[in-house]
Design brief:
3 domains; Receptor-associated Protein; mainly alpha; transmembrane helix
């Protein structure tokens, strides 16, 4: 029995792509950009001596640049996720990163495997584009999850600030200083925009649309209605905080209930691929007798379509809106 190291090489190259991209990102923008170290990036930039308007301009550019570049080739698949993750790389830099890691993946496959040229090219491009997308998607999910968890505390802090007599703009500013990132920087941008004349309700609505979060839309609507018709904003926000916490608990419960179905779908889709890798490692010549059959390639495509359909259907079944 001959063991093949090629599947291991593929996995190591893909992991190396993720490590390389994360390393370049941290080197280029510093550790404060990492979600693992939840410092207030906006305040850190101000402490380093940057002017308030310069910090605001830089942060707004980072937040809005991705959706404005959806027309770039290959970038439309990344724009929404990159915006939610607030990736500091520009769209052009991300495309250059995809090209760079694709080339490095191709070189690694050339050195570590004996695959044909066409396979190495396709795998290199797949690892480059797929690795960047996986990296951005994981950051977007983590950042949105952290914002959802921080939002109730931020709203309750606004309520306490309003009840002691602070105006709403000051309450926003207090939130931007007292809580941690990523929500602190988002509210800091709103506080700065308010200081330069932008309507707070409009700024909150823009943030809710950019992050595509229903709870933030509730907050923006509540503030806009209070601005137009009056009322006790502290009581409104207190009720909103309770609603957000209740929705968050319900979402966690739904997630726990549907976890089995989600993992079943992932297992059923991954099992044939894992089985194929194991077969190739333990017996690389297992499929030699059928490689030349006219139905072999169409059958492979059909299996891939069924696996993708299984993931899509299982995701649709367990994607319960809360």
């Amino acid at each position: 029995m001959t063991l093949s190291a090629e599947p291991i090489v593929y996995g190591l190259i893909f992991i190396a792509v993720l490590v390389l991209v994360e390393g370049v990102y941290l080197v280029a923008f510093g550790k404060s950009i990492s979600l693992n170290k939840r410092v207030n990036r906006r305040l850190e930039m101000l402490d380093k001596g940057s002017k308030r308007e310069e910090v605001l301009a830089k942060l707004r550019k980072e937040m809005d640049q991705h959706m404005a570049s959806r027309g770039l080739p290959l970038y439309s698949i990344l724009a929404d996720r990159a915006q939610k993750a607030a990736i500091a790389f520009t769209p052009q830099q991300l495309i250059m990163m995809m090209v760079l890691v694709s080339v490095l993946s191709f070189v690694g496959l050339t050195v570590g495997t004996e695959a044909q040229l066409g396979v190495r090219v396709l795998m290199g491009i797949g690892m480059g584009v797929g690795g960047i997308f996986f990296w951005i998607n994981s950051k977007a999910k983590k950042r949105i999850s952290m914002i959802e968890e921080q939002l109730p505390d931020a709203v309750e802090l606004m309520v306490r600030s309003l009840r002691v007599g602070h105006p709403f703009s000051s309450a926003i500013s207090i939130v931007s200083k007292e809580i941690k990132d990523p929500l602190a920087t988002e509210f800091g941008v709103i506080a700065d925009e308010s200081s330069y004349g932008r309507d707070i309700g409009e700024a909150l609505k823009a943030m809710a649309e950019r992050l595509d979060m229903q709870d933030l839309r509730f907050l923006a609507v509540a503030v806009s209605i209070q601005q137009q018709s009056g009322g006790n904003l502290a009581e409104i926000l207190e009720g909103l905080a309770k609603v957000i916490r209740a929705r968050f608990r319900l979402f966690r419960r739904v997630k726990a209930i549907t976890a089995e179905a989600q993992w079943s779908g992932k297992f059923l889709s991954a099992f044939p691929i894992v089985a194929l890798i194991v077969i190739q490692v333990t017996d690389p010549h297992y499929y030699d007798e059928v490689l030349d059959h006219p139905w072999f390639i169409p059958a492979c495509f059909l299996v891939g379509i069924f696996l993708a359909a299984n993931l899509f259907v299982m995701r649709m079944l367990v994607n319960i809106k809360v």
